[in-house]
Amino acid sequence: MVSMLRVCLVLYLTLVVGIFADNATPPPIKKVTAKPTEAPKTTTTSPSPSPTTTPVASNGNETIGNASLSNTTQVNTTVTSTTLATTSTTKAMVAPLPAKGAAEEEHHSSMTIFFVLSVIALCVLIIHVLLKFNFTYLPESIAIVIVGTILGGILKLFSSYGIGNWQSEEAFDPTMFFLILLPPIIFESGYNLHKGNFFQNFGSILVFAVIGTFISAMIIGGGVYLLGLAQVAYKLSLVESFAFGSLISAVDPVATLAIFHALDVDPVLYMLVFGESVLNDAVSIVLTTTVLELASPSASAMSGAEAFFSTVWRFCSMFVASAVIGTAFGLVSAMLLKFVDLRKTPSLEFGLMLVFSYLPYGLAEGLKLSGIMAILFAGIVMSHYTHLNLSPVTQITTQQTFRTVAFMAETCVFAYLGLAISSYSHIVKPSFVIWSIVLCLVGRACNIFPLSFVMNYFREHKITRKNQFIMWFSGLRGAIAFALSLHLEFTSEVRHVLLTTTLIIVLFTLMVLGGATLPLLKLLKAEKRKKTKPGRELNLSKTKEMGDTIDTDHLSELTDMEDEVNYVKPHLKGFMKIDAKYLVPFLTRRLTKEELRDGTNQMKTLTNQWYQEVRAVPSEDEEDEEMQNLTAQEIR
Amino acid sequence: MVSMLRVCLVLYLTLVVGIFADNATPPPIKKVTAKPTEAPKTTTTSPSPSPTTTPVASNGNETIGNASLSNTTQVNTTVTSTTLATTSTTKAMVAPLPAKGAAEEEHHSSMTIFFVLSVIALCVLIIHVLLKFNFTYLPESIAIVIVGTILGGILKLFSSYGIGNWQSEEAFDPTMFFLILLPPIIFESGYNLHKGNFFQNFGSILVFAVIGTFISAMIIGGGVYLLGLAQVAYKLSLVESFAFGSLISAVDPVATLAIFHALDVDPVLYMLVFGESVLNDAVSIVLTTTVLELASPSASAMSGAEAFFSTVWRFCSMFVASAVIGTAFGLVSAMLLKFVDLRKTPSLEFGLMLVFSYLPYGLAEGLKLSGIMAILFAGIVMSHYTHLNLSPVTQITTQQTFRTVAFMAETCVFAYLGLAISSYSHIVKPSFVIWSIVLCLVGRACNIFPLSFVMNYFREHKITRKNQFIMWFSGLRGAIAFALSLHLEFTSEVRHVLLTTTLIIVLFTLMVLGGATLPLLKLLKAEKRKKTKPGRELNLSKTKEMGDTIDTDHLSELTDMEDEVNYVKPHLKGFMKIDAKYLVPFLTRRLTKEELRDGTNQMKTLTNQWYQEVRAVPSEDEEDEEMQNLTAQEIR
Q1: Is B599 in the A-facing interface, judged by CB distances under 8 Å?
Q2: Is B352 within 8 Å of A426 when comparing Cβ atoms?
Q3: pLDDT class for B264, splitting at 50, 70, 90?
Q4: Could B175 and A612 be called an inter-chain contact, meaning their C-beta atoms sit closer than 8 Å?
Q5: How many angstroms separate the CA atoms of B372 and B363, rounded?
Q6: Interface test with A, best of B20, B31, B66, B97 (most A CBs within 10 A)
Q7: B527 to chain A nearest CA, in Å?
Q8: Cβ–Cβ gap B358/A113 under 8 Å
Q9: Which residues contact A572 (CB under 8 A, 6 or more apart)?
């Protein structure tokens, strides 16, 4: 028996011998006693001037013999234990063992997740109540921010009485925001985007997003700097001013979507605001990073013109590369699901969809491009091509899951904005805050009105005065700006001032401008748009909209199209024509009759299954009996 | 204009004044220049003997003025920045700003996610190929481990030639495993569990899981210790031996499920092995932590008997409390979805399901109980009650999503096991490894055979000799043991030895025992079970099983029941009776006829939508036309 085992073992070891062999010799061992109190001392004695500039560089150290150094608790497992690594570098390229205290950390993270999920559950119920009592004048996003604020206050109260300590649970973590919360929101908006409108207005959107945001950043950054010099407001350095101007210039897609989505606004207006808000994020990120780089000593040798062109070049390459990555992943997913028939294994099919919905974001962010742009384009391409290659079950699952996850992520974002009021320490500079808000409004005015004026020369569908006004008014700032402000690397006081100011501007635009959007629209509508359908009321709830349109989503898209520029029916032009003639046939699958029948039957079986399981009202009358028979017949 | 804004601002500030007020005064600012190279020095000078035993304690420090300390890159944002906090504690209860370098860390994490998702996509395709060519003799789990091994080797090769550095991407992170990968796997298995069989065999499962695991741990721990003393194998201290014995004794649910799920084994056998593997995880965790605690100086005053009773007491309370938490959350979700009608807003409905599927895990782990037990019970309760309160769309979405996420998590786990071979540095002690494997087999034999013998006195459905043999044989160790071994806090050499040994045992049981399970079953079956249905072949693919049974899952459960002890039809007994008579009516909703019709119509509309969108083969013959008309009629 033992010999057989040995043989097996040797065989397996041979398989991986190349990997094992060079590690099999025990490295020099330094016995470090693992008592936690000794850890800091050990840190002090360690000679490590470990290179800290690039994160990859410090990974080369082997941590055999010094794992106990990382004993200072709350150190996140894999990653951090290398940072304090001493000089016993026997081999590179090997991952360190997790730091001690990792198990403890785990319990803490569990509690954080529990907290977040509880907040989401609470918000779900509150939204349900809002919907049920038709309390449509309070947008969901604002309701959730208020919930977050109140919750933050309560936790603060608890903490001050010593009941629990929640400050790490309630803190808004920008990494979590960018990696977990933002991608599903943007992907979902791309997936359910009205593609026709988006691409028809692509030129205008681009102009607003790029030139407009640049104008706004210049005005806010310059304004803040000059006001600081003039001693009117808090004094910031040139770099700090423009970094702040850049990050606060981007209109936020999350906030804007939440307010606009369900409004019965002019679809072109919606598309302009939405498109701008998605694309200008990239602009804002590039501007902010560029400003910060210009401040670094290595870049100060550059002349102004050089800096300008480098910024422009960076933006263009970032924009194009991100879009290409997103589009490429979308196309690959369509091809894969066309030729690899996964419809018999829905788990694999849906799994592939989930993977492909995040892949472009991961790659683009990893390459320091704009993940948000990549995922937007991936969403658009996937809904246009890949969606058609899915089995009906996976179609439903995909759509529902993306929607739900996006909804949950949005809820999180707004709740965290509310919580941020009490979870960070703030330095309020009233004059700075007020002037910043004024500059934001002025900057946005200088973006929208002149550019609209110019673009109306080229547009068929002019941007009316009223729409311009709404566009100006709806310049909501949101979580992206706030997350960027958390990432600024200035001195502590400046960080806190900018953080606080950004948070106040975000909340102000969300509460005041966002809250006033519905009344404003009503006012404008009363004068102008009479042709709104009588049955459809204004409705600020995106969630309800989701429920209502669950079964008519793609259909409604068609009817919307007919309302407008009807490019579908008589003559397709440009890209649309190529798309319908070549791309769609190339990228989507042609189903045989059998496959169609399979799909339909599968759905029927599922329906029947539900029907059978569910507890119905006892069948007193015949009608019910009859219906049951009917369903049973249909299935056979 | 400005005055209006000021008014709004003041109003809002008043709202949150209690929170802002005490933070408005700027804290004493210590200007620390943010040059990265200075960071280690600063760490050295910091006097912080920050208490490292409890992670919460060190959170009270405010990091204003010292955020640059955490500048050592790769530090995970929110959590870690407190650990290096200096003594400038001006205010407690406030979250620190993210450490600098957080934005950099984000790009790195993105790349990690991209890497993981790419691996999953690759595995999906490989599994598809395996299924397509009906290559059923290689279990999917083993295939994926091999993929992981090969991938690890390739990355190693790349790294050694200096092409990229992947060691943090490919490292198995136990925190990620316990927080993200394990919960969906266990929840899904609970959700799709054959509840009748599970509860009928609950007594036996409990005995195997608790007493059996305890026996096994004692034998392995004692054996390893004695062999060490006798200089036969690597020498471990008493604590280290028993810690190792405890963590390696737990049979792994993930590995076992992956191998067993689709096998057409005796359902009772399946349930015994599965049930044991889920519950003994809790036992193993409690044993391991208890052993480690006994080693700490504070506990050494306890006598042997005290320690024993404290262990027993801890286990019982942990077991009961975890199960109660899981059950409670399940029941709450059922009640919520019964009384709160979310069927018009599927996003909210599905969101609530997602939240409730994770909440019990978060709470149980946060309270240092067994999250895995809590989530198992929540899954069981939710599939039994909550599932019936869902709209058909959400039912489908829920089931598909849970399955897919569980599948993806499993894929990750196995891929990481393969990658772990090359991502950690190993110290192989051949004699220790071989003796450990022998002791594992002996320990499991001492668990299964005597306990089965005893229990057969009490069981109606006896455990046959053959089933006992299969149970012994199928004691696969898996990722839980490996993750626990990563969390051990011994000296570095011992850690590496135990890590390596655990990994080899895991791979050995998975590859050799797991791989031999199918031939073994065939051998045994050829002799004995003739009554297997002719149409159904042995199939090691869980994924294919998923696809096949997608529409008959809950129905098949009923038919299975009839096969066996048929407690459903003639007379329900015990809990089953109470359940059917009181609990189900209490916890599930009675649908009105209208609601039934709505549900059916919703599904029809969705089917139709798919039918309309999809590109069908051009309708040449009439049959197709006919079918289209038929479908159209049905929908009207």
Answers
A1: yes
A2: no
A3: low
A4: no
A5: 11
A6: B97
A7: 24
A8: yes
A9: A580
Catalogue the long-range contacts made by B266-271 (C-beta closer than 8 Å, 24 or more residues apart): B266/B467, B266/B529, B267/B194, B267/B197, B267/B560, B267/B563, B267/B564, B268/B197, B268/B201, B268/B461, B268/B463, B268/B467, B268/B564, B269/B463, B269/B467, B269/B470, B269/B471, B270/B197, B271/B194, B271/B197, B271/B198, B271/B201, B271/B205
Residue B267 tokens, joined: 């359902």
CB atoms within 10 A of CB B461: 14
Q: Which chain A residues are within 8 Å of B16, Cβ to Cβ?
A: 149, 153, 421-422
Considering CB atoms only, which of A27, A487, A603 is closest to B98?
A487
A359/B114 CB distance under 8 A: yes
State how far residue B46 is from chain A, nearest Cα, in angstroms: 9
pTM of the model: 0.76
Percentage of residues in chain A having pLDDT higher than 70 = 67
Between B631 and B5, the more confident residue is: B631
Give the gap in angstroms from C-alpha B219 to the nearest C-alpha of chain A. Answer: 18
Question: Are A361 and B417 in contact, with CB atoms under 8 Å apart?
Answer: no
Cite the residue boundaries of each domain of chain B with CATH code 1.20.1530.20.
Answer: 174-527
Q: How many CA atoms lie within 13 A of A14 on its CB side?
A: 6
Reported as a single tens digit per residue, the pLDDT across A131-170 is 888 766 677 888 888 999 998 888 888 877 766 666 666 6
List CB contacts of B227: < 8 A, sequence separation 6 or more. B233, B435
Decide if A487 and B102 are in contact by the 8 Å CB cutoff.
yes
Give pLDDT, residue B67: 35
Closest residue in chain A to residue B348, using alpha carbons only: A124
Q: How many CB atoms lie within 10 A of CB B299?
A: 14
- B174-527 fold: Na+/H+ antiporter like fold (1.20.1530)
- Cα distance between residue A301 and residue A296, in whole Å: 10
Residue of A nearest to B431 (CA): A6
pLDDT tens-digit map of A320-363:
898 899 999 999 999 998 888 887 888 889 999 999 999 999 99
> Would the ipTM clear 0.85, i.e. be above it?
no
Q: Residues near A532 by Cβ (< 8 Å), separated by ≥ 6? A: A264, A525
More confident residue, B19 or B163: B163
- Residue B421: pLDDT above 50? yes
Chain A residue numbers with beta carbons less than 8 Å from the beta carbon of B388 are 613-615
Average pLDDT over residues A475-500: 84
The DSSP call for residue A28 is: P
With beta carbons under 8 A apart, name residues in chain B contacting A61. none
User: Does any CB of chain A come closer than 8 Å to the CB of residue B607?
Assistant: yes
* B302-325 pLDDT per residue, tens: 666 777 787 778 778 888 898 899
pLDDT value at residue B327? 93
C-alpha distances in angstroms, A32 versus A35, A37, A68, A300? Answer: 9, 12, 7, 47
Partners of A95 in the β-ladder = B424
Chain B, 169-198: which have a CB under 8 Å from a chain A CB? 170-171, 173-175, 178-179
Residues of B in contact with A291 (CB under 8 A): none
Residue A291 CB-density burial (10 A; 0-12 exposed, 13-18 middle, 19+ buried): buried
Closest by CA to A236, choosing from A370, A482, A427, is A427
| Residue A549 in contact with partner chain B when CB distance is under 8 A | no
Nearest C-alpha of chain B: how many angstroms from A156? 8
Cα distances (angstroms) measured from residue B394 to each of B329, B343, B399, B486, B599: 19, 8, 8, 39, 11
Mean pLDDT lowest for which of A611-620, B152-161, B604-613?
A611-620
Got the DSSP string for B22-42? TT-SPPPP------GGGHHHH
CB distance B585–A615 less than 8 Å? yes
